Amino acid sequence: MAAKRLSRRAVLKGLGVSIALPWLEAMAPRLSLATGAAAAAPKRMAFLYVPNGVNMAQWTPRSMGPNFTLPSVLEPLQPFKNDLLVLSGLTCDKARPNGDGPGDHARAMSAYLTGCQAVKTNGANIAVGVSADQIAAQRIGTATRFPSLEIGCEGGRNFGNCDSGYSCAYSHNLSWRNPTTPNPKEVSPRAVFDRLFGSATGPNVALQQQYNQSILDFVLEDAQGLMNQLGSNDRHRLDQYLDSIREVEQRITTATNSNNANNPTLPRPAAGIPSNYRDHIRLHSDLLALAFQCDLTRVATFVYANEGSNRSYRLIEVNDGHHDLSHHQNDANKLSKIAQINRFHMEQFAYLLGKLKDVREGNGNLLDNCMIVYGSGNGDGNRHNHDDLPILLAGKGGGTITTGRHLRYPRETPLTNLFLSMLDRMGVNVPEVGDSTGRLPQLA
To answer: Where do the domains of the chain lie?
Structure first.
């Protein structure tokens, strides 16, 4: 019997639940009679943000081109060196004061994806610009169930004075739907999971309790029926995918229930926050990878921590606040601790890249079809400079990017030139992004 042909939008269905499918060979279009070529896998883009800059001396490779050595902070990325570009010399000019005085943290995050100068206010009249992710979402978002996904590990608010007269909206939000409307990030892995994969509905308490065991219980019959109609490669892919969903669901339950370990009778929280920061980042990374794998969205932002965050990192024996340490005044001990924090973040980034690279897609892997930017709107947190930013680009953009290199651009090259180039590769052709001056060369 011939293997079943599937629509790219096919889902597994159950009572009140639908689960999107990953890319399967059964979804590949038949060869075009005219060209003899099958349609390419979709491209995805994500922007990961870390606050307070980095220890640049431990970040920047010394040599250019393909024969560079990853410095200590970037060493966790060694398995992905050939999937990576280190981009030096890029500038976020609109994070600078430009006559507005203090407030570098608020401006760093608000200008990062918009390339626009934030209106200095802590009132309701916030305004900055449309972020690069939302430029993409507004043009290609109809191709997927969710136009974009916004996640993070620290909550935020859109009011109050968080940085020298700037609204908290600026330092707590990376994604901006329009100049006056930020897209709040979801910090609960459980809430993200439920948004992506649906939830049981209705008043039946027993049904809700069954759902609280596993969402997959509702689609097992449909999944088994589909398995019987797929080829062996697709059966293996689907089995791995369902195992991944179940594993993430179980880890979310464990991580959120650990917050209530002293009360074992308390039911699982609907939207708990993991107490372990590493678990929190990795659960969101798993969910982002799953969202890209099953083409639920092609655009995402992920904020590891809000700009100016003073989170301590006791899990790696750094008890000082991150923001406090960033004002290091060249103190060797503080710089060492900053490097530890930077390396911890890099280990989590490597975890995400590993998840993406492990997913087979067409003749390559999911990471090949992604463009994942990692960086900060601050360079050295002590100087609050916004030039020569720490920027990484992972993934080959569907074969349009030549990775495995360290590139250095001329001073004052806008960071937004990178985003404009990424949008081109997503099929989103716009004349500019914020303060961009053209496309970023040397990527191909």
So the answer is: 1-29+203-259+267-272, 44-187+278-425
Among the listed residues 18, 23, 16, 19, the one whose alpha carbon sits nearest the alpha carbon of residue 6: 23
With 70 as the cut, is the pLDDT of residue 31 above it? no
Confidence of residue 1 (pLDDT cuts 50, 70, 90): very low
Q: Which of 422, 444, 434, 417 is nearest to 89 (CA)?
A: 417
Cα separation of 77 and 87, whole Å?
A: 15
Nearest to 374 by CA among 41, 40, 67, 80: 80
Identify the CATH assignment for 44-187+278-425 out of 1.20.1740, 1.10.101, 3.40.720, 3.60.21. 3.40.720
What is residue 36's predicted lDDT score, i.e. its pLDDT?
45
Of 55-69, 193-207, 214-228, 334-348, the one with minimum mean pLDDT is 193-207
DSSP 305: S
| CA–CA separation, 44 and 136 (whole Å) | 10
Over residues 41-52, the mean pLDDT reads 97
Give the amino acid at 254: T
Contact 409, 90 (CB under 8 A): yes
Q: How far apart are CA 224 and CA 241, in angstroms?
A: 14
Instruction: Please say if the pLDDT value at position 318 is more than 80.
Output: yes
Residues with Cβ within 8 Å of 292's Cβ and at least 6 positions away in sequence, in order, are 44, 46, 298, 300, 356, 366, 370
- Inform me whether the pLDDT recorded for 314 exceeds 60: yes
Reduced 3-state DSSP string for 72-91: HHHHHHHHHHHHEEEEEEEE
Number of H helices, E strands in the chain: 11, 17
Question: How many CB atoms are located within 10 Å of the residue 262 CB?
Answer: 6
CA distance 401 to 388: 21
Q: Which tens digit of pLDDT belongs to each residue from 337-387?
A: 999 999 999 999 999 999 999 999 988 999 999 999 999 999 999 999 999
- d(CA 54, CA 57) in angstroms, rounded, equals 9
Percent of the chain with pLDDT over 70: 90
- What pTM value is reported for the model? 0.91
Closest by CA to 44, choosing from 354, 439, 369, 276, is 369
- Considering all CA atoms of the chain, what is the largest pairwise distance in Å, rounded to the nearest integer? 71
Q: Which residues of 151-189 are buried (b: 16+ CB within 10 A; e: fewer)?
A: bbbbebeeeeebbbebbbbbbbbbbbbebebbbbbbbbb
Mean of pLDDT values over 15-44:
71
